């Protein structure tokens, strides 16, 4: 059975407590997730979104317990990615003529994914669907996070159905802010923003301003993953504005990989240097090959400055650092400082490659890369500590000299 949210709105989604990864293995989901779909019953009955394909039969079966499928007058698809549209084919086999309200891009995506000539009704910002005592208003939100994305606002109950926006991969039974562990929820909401939305921050800011200017009364935000913001919907909106504005905390994150421990020793010495120069800054060390990549990206999102280190391997860098750098490039972090480091045995181009990659990814490089030949000795450990001190001062905005040791031959 579904879960009643208001007199008119029932949650008919799927909660998956066991989900460990999403988007293949691109996104880790330590706390499970939910696919939220909603049944709005009024003079007309409307289904908003569906669930992921593996749960399609379960979804249709449980929907039938709520409503005779013949009584569904329309389906609204806010966003047509597989996790929300996956159960559509199963549902449409039962009610093939029911209109599907979505954006023009939404229709293209549904056609591209399922190759079906369904009864598409394309909508634009400001278009409405009257249900009797309430009205649905559609607001296009392109690239939040796909070209097809839109939000649906329900008057009367004053609910914004925001699909992935304001969502979190988080499983709960109650779906409500009031009974959820909000520390966990906020951690997952931040991780979601950092990993999925950072690069669309300009659109986030613009869309939120546009919606705020509409002055709509807002009792709840119902996203497509995780909890409903039923206590303080304005709070997550405000939080999104902060996250979208080149977010940073007083944190420096050091990410490294190592085969024989030299680069790890460098990372630890750099951390000591940072700590000695700026005892107020939060320093975190993460091993790119051992720590979760999405957690690392969330820490980078929270940082004002990052150091990335890799041993030189086959005239290049490690697999884990290379993968992470590609993810960093894609997210287009803003206003963050950075530097590169690493141990090497002969050619030593690894740190320079990291440096160039971070620079191309929009980081402000505050020093030359630091390369150390083989295992660091007392002198080169001291060099690493000095590198850390200088980095901390540069990250704090100091004008102190910030050049590191030049690499031989680079
Ligand atoms: C498979 C392998 C390939 C390597 N390729 C290079 C290389 O192309 N150029 C270089 O300068 N050092 C190379 N090295 C040497 C490492 O960079 C050196 O051992 C370094 O100190 C390792 O740092 P780590 O202790 O942090 O793993 C290679 C080492 C290994 C094991
Ligand atoms: Fe999505
Ligand atoms: Fe989604």
From TrEMBL:
Q: Which Pfam families match?
A: Flavodoxin_1 (PF00258), ODP (PF19583)
CDD domains for the chain: flavodiiron_proteins_MBL-fold
Instruction: Give the SUPFAM superfamilies listed for this entry.
Output: Flavoproteins, Metallo-hydrolase/oxidoreductase
Superkingdom is: Bacteria
Question: For the Flavodoxin-like domain, which residue ranges apply?
Answer: 252-392
Q: Which GO terms describe its molecular function?
A: electron transfer activity; FMN binding; metal ion binding; oxidoreductase activity, acting on NAD(P)H
Q: Which family does it belong to?
A: In the N-terminal section; belongs to the zinc metallo-hydrolase group 3 family.
Protein name, per record: Metallo-beta-lactamase
Q: Taxonomically, what lineage is the organism?
A: Bacteria, Bacillati, Bacillota, Erysipelotrichia, Erysipelotrichales
């Amino acid at each position: 059975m579904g879960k009643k949210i208001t007199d008119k709105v029932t949650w008919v989604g799927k909660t998956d407590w066991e989900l460990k990864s999403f988007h293949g293995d691109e996104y880790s989901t330590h706390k499970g997730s939910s696919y939220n779909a909603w049944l709005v019953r009024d003079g007309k009955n409307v289904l908003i979104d569906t669930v992921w394909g593996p749960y399609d039969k379960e979804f249709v079966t449980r929907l039938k317990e709520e409503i005779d499928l013949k009584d569904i007058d329309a389906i609204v698809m806010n966003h047509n990615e597989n996790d929300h549209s996956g159960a559509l084919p199963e549902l449409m086999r039962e009610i093939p003529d029911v209109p599907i309200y979505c954006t023009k891009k939404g229709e293209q995506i549904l056609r591209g994914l399922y190759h079906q000539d369904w009864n598409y009704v394309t909508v634009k910002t400001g278009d409405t669907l009257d249900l009797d005592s309430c009205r649905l208003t559609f607001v296009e939100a392109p690239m939040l996070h796909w070209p097809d994305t839109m939000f649906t606002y329900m008057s009367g109950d004053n609910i914004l159905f925001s699909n992935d926006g304001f969502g979190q991969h988080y499983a709960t039974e109650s779906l409500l802010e009031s009974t959820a562990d909000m520390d966990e929820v906020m951690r997952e909401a931040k991780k979601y923003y950092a990993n999925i939305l950072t690069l669309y921050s300009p659109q986030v800011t613009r869309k939120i301003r546009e919606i705020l200017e509409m002055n709509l009364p807002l009792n709840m935000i119902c996203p497509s993953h995780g909890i409903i913001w039923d206590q303080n919907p304005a709070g997550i909106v405000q939080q999104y504005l902060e996250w979208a504005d080149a977010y940073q905390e007083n944190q420096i994150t050091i990410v490294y990989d190592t085969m024989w421990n030299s680069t790890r020793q460098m990372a630890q010495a750099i951390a000591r240097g940072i700590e000695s120069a700026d005892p107020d800054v939060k320093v975190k060390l993460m091993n790119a090959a051992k720590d979760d990549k999405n957690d690392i990206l969330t820490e980078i999102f929270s940082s004002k400055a990052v150091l990335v280190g890799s041993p030189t391997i086959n005239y290049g860098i490690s697999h884990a650092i290379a993968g992470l750098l590609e993810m960093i490039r894609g997210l287009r972090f803003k206003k963050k400082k950075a530097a590169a480091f690493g141990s090497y045995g002969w050619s030593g181009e690894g740190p320079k490659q990291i440096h160039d990659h971070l620079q191309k990814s929009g980081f402000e490089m505050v020093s030359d890369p630091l390369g150390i030949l083989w295992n660091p000795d007392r002198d080169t450990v001291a060099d690493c500590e000095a590198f850390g001190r200088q980095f901390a001062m540069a990250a704090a905005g100091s004008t102190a000299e910030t050049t590191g040791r030049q690499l031989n031959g680079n």
